[in-house]
Structure of S-adenosyl-L-methionine-dependent methyltransferase:
Amino acid sequence: MAAFSDKSFDFKGYQANRPRYPDLLYETVLQFHKGDRETVLDLGTGPGLSLFPFAYQFKHLIGSDPSEGMIGQAEQAWQAWKEDQHDKNKIQAKDAKFIQGSAENLEGIADESIDLITAAQAAHWFDPNKVWPEVYRVLKPNGSVAFWGYGTNYLPRHPSLAGAMRKFMSSTDEDMGRYWPPGRELVEDLLNGFPFPSNSSCMTKWDIDSATRIQHTLSSPGIADLAWTQGKAPEEKFRMELVRSFDDINGYFRTSSALSRYYKAHPEAKGQKPDMIDKHVEKLREAVLQERKGGAQADGLDDDHVRVAWPLGVMMIRKKT
């Protein structure tokens, strides 16, 4: 989380280049949620991109983030998101507010006032021993919690290039992996290591039987199973997939908090052109084009575009009435 609090962090670049979650994810969460649809709270909201789609189902949106920079971006992004919607008349949300604060200390939010609590690509920063009691406090009876995240990106038509796609976005990379802060491996493993709460003297109404995990198959901790891309397994539907230009991939790699930490340790490397990401993406592009010449499907895309996917994982639990 420290990288996002750094004043030099590129918040606008983060907002522009991070992938958006698919409708399937929101449908999964809403189908799981059995409570009212008054207020949703998104923890670690960043620029709010994961929160806004709930505006079609909930009347009040709240985003919380410890970074002042992210909160400033969220307020601007909310207005831009509303203007960009084609069916504005279907938006249910009457308001959206963004507050600076940690998930472990939700001061200012009343007891049992929230229907749905979410966290997108953020739970790996949380302290489970502190966040669950606070979430329990503000969650209404029959309310739900949904934490989700995505692992390291890959190219569905080019599974042999999975290692190259992990270069700047995985804690397992031999060069850049050391620059990821603790917790990265947890989200790469689709939150499998993040525990569900248990009932105790201060939390007596968790519906333990409702605890659910849905995720993309992993071949090993933190590594997406790509057997489906070769027809050796059923299609993995719980994923994000987008057509991206190689310039987009370049921009996405630059949202890596490991890169931010690398540049702090090696300031002489920042500002070089072409820099290490430029060189890496160009090699990646050349490898993709070479595989297409060898028969890999191009899906009708030109030489500057390719399909990119991210494995998704969500964990959900309800509070009893």
About this structure: The first helix runs from residue 2 to 5. Residues 66 and 101 are 4 Å apart (CA to CA). The radius of gyration is 20 Å.
